[in-house]
Amino acid sequence: MDGRTGASLKLTILNEKGRVWTMVAGGGASVVYADTVADYGMGSELANYGEYSGAPSTEETFVYAKTLLSLMMKYKHPDGKFLIIGGGIANFTDVAATFTGLIKALQEYADDIKEHKIKILIRRAGPNYLEGLRKVKAASDKLGLGIKVYGPETHITAVIPMALGKIDPLPEPDLSAPCGPPVRKMIDLKGKKPTPKGHPPAPAGTKHTLVTATPETTSIVYGMQNRAVQGMLDFDFMCKRKKPSVDAMVFPFSGNLVKFYWGTEEVLMPVYTTTKEALHFGTSGAVQKHSNASVFVNFASFRSVHETSMEAMNYSSLKTIAIIAEGVPEQQTRDIIKVAEKKGVGIIGPATVGGIKPGCLRIGNTGGMLQP
Fold this sequence. Notes:
With 372 residues, the protein is α/β, with parallel strands linked by helices. Helices cover 29% and strands 20% of the residues. It has helices at residues 27-39, 58-72, 95-108, 110-115, 129-143, 159-163, 226-238, 275-279, 305-312, 330-343; strands at residues 8-13, 20-25, 48-53, 81-87, 118-123, 148-150, 219-222, 246-250, 256-262, 265-272, 295-298, 320-323, 346-348, 355-357, 361-363.
């Protein structure tokens, strides 16, 4: 599945007889959740490690959740098991859409979940999170699963000690209330040691970074990431840029024109099959205007990101390359950095959501999407 989608779907079984299972959105969150389970003394019971992120579809989430649940049912434990479904605040994943897939899986395994005494807690935030939590809670009540759901008002990892019985469950939020900013209690710092002063200053930026962008800076986007490109154009329009920050897209499997919106007007974005064609030579051999683009936003998967990034650095007009993919091998990353330093190219990533320079440029899905 992971190889056939632009989303990230990872799953590694650590202990198939373990009691603690996680379904976490986001690579960073998956690390935090695994560490927190271990911090509470349940590391030996951690059954799996993985993530579902990058805006997976409803069907992809359904298959992922179904796979996870089927693995949980292989062995019974007399004391039952825990399924912790969590994540931070999604940038561009539609939480309601993914939870629709989750609900389908819960419906299919409802009897098994009760038979295996599986306790489920959810903590999620992001676009349409409130609708998603409402749907899951309604399904839980109907199926008799007793799922507890929480939003951004609850700390990202608070569901872990609640699930493990280390602390009493917090009251669930009022899901009928309108969506608003999270409200949390202040942390009591009495008796805490003050942060030591005299920290060294942050290192200076590289020669070519997002900091050097101007309102005229333009980019080439590698990959058919229409949602990300539209988000970049919306940012441009709100910043009152004179023209979109995306000059063209590159997609190896088809070249054509794709429709986007510039405010209320429609614009057609050219799509080329190679970076060379986009930056230098079209099918007629004529020089393309996109040779002025200085930023390369690379949405290629970790399997091909090395090849595409190295190719992009062959073109002197590209001064900054943002590598979105996670899981890029260390040796390939070192190779990219070595060539970039030699050619004076700034690298953002790998494993980055991008970046923003106010009034100038937004890279990829940074900052998330507007909440409907």
